[in-house]
Amino acid sequence: MGSNAHRGGDNIPEPLSDVPTECYDVLRHPRRLRILEILGSRTVRLSLSELTTELLERTTAPSNGKGRHEVRTSLVHNHLPRLESYDIVDWDDDGVTLVDEPPVHPADLSTVLELCDSENAERLLETLVDPVRMRLLYLLELTDRPLTLEQLAGQLSASDREPFADQTSAKIALHHSHLPAMADVGVINYDRESQLVTRYDHVASISQ
Question: Structural domain of residue 177, as residue ranges?
Answer without folding.
Answer: 121-207
